[in-house]
Design goal:
Helices cover 28% and strands 31% of the residues. The chain has a six-stranded mixed sheet, with helices on both faces. Strand 26 and strand 27 form a beta hairpin. Guanosine-5'-diphosphate binds next to helix 6.
């Protein structure tokens, strides 16, 4: 029964073949004039003429945007529809729409976020242990990445890997698994950098936030201060006329936890979370690994449908036949409903957290799909090109696009000035969304947020450290570095208009660490350095970085090894340098050396 239903629904989500017989043009991203002409069944020259009549000069290989396609298609009496993915091997890109009548209420999936030491783990433990108090079986638990509780007959799933990296990594892989974020803020500490990060992550994911003001048992606790501080982030308490729920809790003592759970239920009810339990399951891998006894295992969050023992499925590019399913208390299940997260065995390989999974009606089909996905991923890995700015635009709807931006600057003043200048840029149908704007060097969390939100990072007088840059490169996150506001606004405006050549080229040649200082009167400060990465030349442009912030930009006056002037020093060697016209160097500063000036795009 269920299998048939699933097949019907998937095919419902696919375009009807009859659509092509009607006068419909399927719009695809990067559609060329030639492709448009073919779709319309018209000679390409005729289409080019039509474009010219509409004031658009284009050759057959030029791409046309959706508006242009619509304009020309309408002229020929065609309707334009967006491409719908029909290839079953790309199931992770499917948007399955169930009939309203098939949908049933499902439990909320909650992630707990907040600053380190504010009590996330304690809260997760207290809620997990409350199951015993709530009359559920206790016993030894195992970490599977998620657990479910039943509170007053109401199920709630908690993702129990606190931390923003996990959250944004999931999002980066296209998996939005969280319905509600509980933001834990210690009442004796207030809003801290990672609190701010958590708010940005939750807002970027468009998740409702419930604030849990923790550690109210402490004498220094000041919950009002937390409310005041968070109001600046637009999390205005209901008591003050806003719509953010605040609950005072002590995760350690258990105070207020019941109230927190009740509020989660309330927010979940408002969100009207629903799924269709009567279809083959699909969802996301929460955690995965290899156990020497069990073999490959994965914790799967069922997001739609029902997962059953014996089901054949594809997780990422791995095939499997569900052998066992168990929760964090080692309780075995035969079936898992929407929002349930269970650890399964029976996979033929190790998949990855964030992979999507889908059940197929036949083993043969599942195996073929897994195989095909494996081959495709391998070939994609081979030509994995960096993202360009065009890849960063998020479609809000068929007409409007949005570009997410993260601003990191050397000072609050420049961050605000840059933000205000960027927000003044007006380009039709494209909007800028600044998801983070703060002071300091570019960090791994910035890369995670950018990766998860498809954002562009703008560094203003700040530079990423080499390890952060490596992470950015690995994730193909774009970082653009500037020191003049006008250059930023110019470039971004050009990018929004689609005029900017998007490739970011870095011409940094190496990094030096300053280990010793020698002050020589009449000459200045000579820095004893060690080249940690790449190389430095005597003609290099250098940036002096203190905690990742550019404190000076200029040229080298001298580059020496022992007493000799040299042209170049490579990684692993020591050298003595003097910066032209600058002596305020400190031990621990880092010098970033570039061989030529930054490439203008
Ligand atoms: P996490 O880093 O956010 O996961 O924080 P933890 O849950 O590890 O908690 C950090 C410290 O704060 C631990 O020593 C906890 O015992 C303590 N803690 C957590 N919640 C409370 C609370 O409600 N009251 C008090 N007094 N201490 C707490």
């Amino acid at each position: 029964m269920a299998k048939k239903k699933h097949e019907k629904r998937v095919s419902d989500a696919l375009p009807k073949t009859s659509e092509n017989k009607e006068k419909v043009v399927i719009y695809k991203p990067n559609m060329t004039v030639l492709m448009l002409a073919e779709a319309l069944g018209k000679p390409v020259n005729q289409v080019i003429m039509k474009l010219i009549q509409n004031g658009i000069m284009a050759s057959q290989s030029n791409t046309v945007d959706r508006d242009t396609v619509e304009l020309i298609a309408l002229d020929y009496g065609y309707e334009v529809k967006d491409e719908v993915i029909t290839d079953i091997t790309r199931f992770d890109e499917f948007k399955i729409v169930d009939d309203e009548s098939d949908l049933e209420k499902r439990p909320p999936v909650v992630t707990i976020m907040g600053h380190v030491d504010h009590g996330k783990t304690t809260l997760l433990d207290t809620i997990r242990n409350s199951r015993v108090a709530l009359g559920e079986a206790g016993g030894i638990t195992q970490h599977i990445g998620a657990y479910q509780i039943n509170h007053n007959g109401y199920d709630i799933t908690f993702i129990d890997t606190p931390g923003h990296a996990a959250f944004s990594q999931m999002r980066a892989r296209g998996a939005s698994i969280t319905d509600i974020v509980v933001l834990v803020v210690a009442a004796d500490d207030g809003v801290m950098p990672q609190t701010e990060e958590a708010i940005e992550h939750a807002k970027a994911a468009k998740c409702p936030i419930i604030v849990a003001v923790n550690k109210i048992d402490k004498p220094q606790a000041n919950p009002d201060r937390v409310m005041e501080e968070l109001s600046r982030y637009n999390l205005i308490p209901e008591a003050w006329g806003g719509d953010t729920i605040y609950v005072n809790i002590s995760a350690l003592k258990g105070t207020g936890v019941k109230e927190l759970l009740e509020n989660i239920e309330l927010v979940a009810d408002i969100a009207e979370l629903k799924a269709n339990p009567n279809r083959l399951a699909m969802g996301t891998v929460i955690e995965a690994g290899l156990d020497k006894n069990k073999g490959p295992y994965a914790t799967l969050l069922v997001q739609n449908g029902t997962l059953k023992v014996g089901d054949c499925l594809v997780c990422g590019e791995t095939f499997g036949k569900v052998r066992t399913m168990e929760d964090d208390r080692h309780v075995r299940y035969q079936a898992a409903k929407p929002s349930q997260a269970l650890m399964i065995t029976g996979l033929d390989g190790v998949c990855q957290a964030g992979d999507k999974f889908m059940v197929f009606s036949s083993e043969q089909e599942a195996k073929a799909v897994a195989e095909e996905r494996h081959i495709r991923n391998k070939s994609q890995e081979a030509d994995n090109k960096p993202k360009n700015i065009n890849d960063l635009f998020n479609a809000i709807d068929s007409k409007n696009k949005e570009l997410n931006i993260i601003i990191k600057a050397d000072a609050q003043g420049s961050a605000e000035a840059l933000k205000n200048s960027l927000l003044k840029i007006e380009v039709p149908d494209v909007s800028l969304n600044i998801i983070r704007c703060n002071v300091g060097t570019i960090t791994d969390d910035d890369i995670n947020l950018a990766d998860g939100s498809k954002a562009l990072i703008i560094g203003f007088n700040v530079r990423p450290m080499p390890n952060v840059k490596n992470t950015a490169n690995a994730k193909h996150v774009q970082i653009r570095l500037y020191s003049i506001i006008y250059d930023v606004t110019n470039d971004i405006e050009a990018a929004l208009k689609g005029l900017l050549d998007p490739v970011y080229e870095d011409v940094v040649s190496g990094y030096l660490e300053i280990r010793e200082l020698f002050k020589i009167s009449k000459v200045g400060t000579i820095a004893g350095c060690y080249v940690t990465d790449g190389y430095v030349t005597n003609t290099a442009t250098i940036r002096l970085l203190r905690e990742g912030i550019v404190v000076y930009e200029g040229k080298l006056a001298t580059l020496r090894r022992f007493k000799d002037d040299v042209k170049e020093v490579k990684a692993g060697y020591e050298c003595g340098i003097r910066i032209e016209g600058y002596n305020d160097i400190k031990v621990g500063d880092v010098i970033e050396a570039s061989t030529t000036k930054e490439v203008k795009q």
